[in-house]
Specification:
single chain, 231 residues, alpha/beta, 4-stranded antiparallel β-sheet, 3-stranded parallel β-sheet, 9 strands
Length: 231
């Protein structure tokens, strides 16, 4: 029997795919089903009752996870003058202008998030075809096109994550690591769900938060009772 089929057999004894678990129990099961030799990422999938083809139902934004994701995030800031120093002081890994754009044109992509001041967006647009498909293009809707680069860089470093609903109306968001304490995962997940709930479009009909599923990188999806998030 392969390692994967052994894992699946173990998961089958542990997780009932037809059941929706209370959040605390779901987190416990996620941790128990983590069997990889590395510290797996814990991810949440939210299936929303929206039609992303409609502009007013495109759910996109960012959330500050109280305990971060457990992953070091490399931040690049496109800026000029004093803003370069402000970005660096706040913890940006790279800050600058034309020289960074040229470097990216040459194939360099050693960063995870990108922030830009408004006056740089004309130049940043030149590498939109490189940054866009990778989800790295700065965008005012998620606060990454801003004059307040110091504050945004600090937020990202502290655990802010971006999210955007896909064509099927699903958000996929990392919320921590399998090694996190249960309480920290619970607080991160609750913060994410509450943030997304507040973004419900007025035009969305029927059930908005359809399903909540949590999983590790290599583990099974565990369905969480959406009633866990009713306050």
């Amino acid at each position: 029997m392969s390692k994967l089929s052994k894992r699946k057999k173990a998961w089958g004894a542990l997780v009932d795919p037809a059941r929706k678990y209370p959040l605390k129990e779901g987190i416990e099961l996620v941790k128990q089903s983590s069997s990889a030799k590395f510290d797996e990422s814990v991810d949440v999938s939210l299936n929303l009752g929206v039609d992303p083809r409609k502009a007013d139902q495109m759910i996109r934004g960012s959330v500050e996870l109280p305990h971060g994701t457990g992953k070091a995030v490399r931040v690049l800031v496109f800026s000029k003058g004093a803003k370069v120093g402000e970005a660096t002081a706040a913890g940006a890994d790279y800050a600058g202008g034309e020289e960074l754009i040229e470097k990216i044109k040459g194939g360099w992509l050693e960063f995870d998030r990108v922030v830009a001041t408004p006056d740089m967006m004309g130049q940043v647009g030149k590498i939109g075809k490189i940054l866009g498909p990778r989800g790295l293009m700065p965008n005012p809707k998620v606060g990454t096109v801003t004059l307040d680069v110091g504050k945004v860089v600090s937020s990202i470093k502290a655990g802010q994550v971006e999210f955007r609903v896909d064509k099927a109306g699903i958000l996929h968001v990392p919320v921590g690591r399998a090694s996190f304490e249960n309480r920290k995962l619970e607080e991160n997940i609750t913060n994410l769900v509450e943030t997304v709930k507040r973004m419900r479009p007025a035009s969305a009909k029927g059930t908005y938060l359809k399903t909540v599923t949590i999983s590790t990188t290599m583990g099974p999806g565990i369905h969480v009772d959406t009633g866990s998030f009713v306050h």
